[in-house]
Amino acid sequence: MGGGGDFETFVAAAREIPGLGPRTRARIPDGSRQALVVTGEARDANRSTAVLYARQGRTADWRAVSGPWPAHNALRGWTDHHRQGDLRSPVGVFGPTDAGGLLPDPGTDFPYDRGPAFRARGTGFEGESLDGSFDYVIAVNDNRRPGTTPLDWTRPLGAGRGGGIWLHVDHGGPTQGCVSLPRARMKELLRTLEPDGKPVVVMGDAAALGR
């Protein structure tokens, strides 16, 4: 029955999220049931693609449940060592725990902070209006204190290591460090992600995520 081992290997591989290498997969907690995977086109590119995966039932089998969606990331692409003002998005696996926005809660199970401080003003790198960009946001736990509003600027690793990384509404151009998604997709995420399922955001350029 020599072919049995090959079949078992195929089944095990099929359960993994496509495009993620062993180092990236190892950073996803065993208890996580949902993963938003944001894959950048290239290390220095500011366009990416997002897919939402979920573990089905009691198995370890990851399946795509929504996407792919177009997305933007930081102007200069991605980095493994995010610094304040580098105009790159951090590569890694992060746990979203807090949300907010200018508009009312669309039905999320995350704590949701609504207020005028989420009003976006000005223009982006390509001259596009930023109006509405923070109508819905989900904080990405990179150098921030989980369990607080996305507007909390506490930086456990120090201000020099950046922070303030959000998922937010796409404004049609690159960001300063966040990942932006179409408005309808942000509302979908807020309604779909389940805090009890320990969701994660897996983000980076394709080469980095494949490690």
Per-chain topology:
Elements (H helix, E strand, L loop, with lengths): L2 H12 L7 H5 L7 E7 L6 E9 L6 E11 L5 E2 L9 E2 L1 E3 L3 E4 L10 E3 L22 E3 L26 E4 L9 E3 L1 H10 L7 E6 H4 L2
Parallel strand pairs: 1-12, 4-5, 7-8, 10-11
Antiparallel strand pairs: 1-2, 2-3, 6-12, 7-9, 9-10
Structure description:
The protein is α/β, with parallel strands linked by helices. 15% of the residues lie in helices and 27% in strands. The protein has four helices and twelve strands, in the order ααβββββββββββαβα. It has a five-stranded mixed beta sheet with strand order 3-2-1-12-6. The protein has a five-stranded mixed beta sheet with strand order 8-7-9-10-11. Strand 1 and strand 2 form a beta hairpin. Mean pLDDT is 92; it is low at 1-14.
Q: What's the alpha carbon Rg, rounded to whole Å? A: 17 Å
Total of DSSP H or I helical runs spanning 4+ residues: 4
Written as H for each helix and E for each strand, in order along the chain, the element string is HHEEEEEEEEEEEHEH
Our estimate of the beta-strand percent is 25-35%
Describe, in short, the structure shown.
The chain has 211 residues and is α/β, with parallel strands linked by helices.
Keywords:
4 helices, 15% helix, 12 strands, alpha/beta, single chain, five-stranded mixed sheet, disordered N terminus, 211 residues
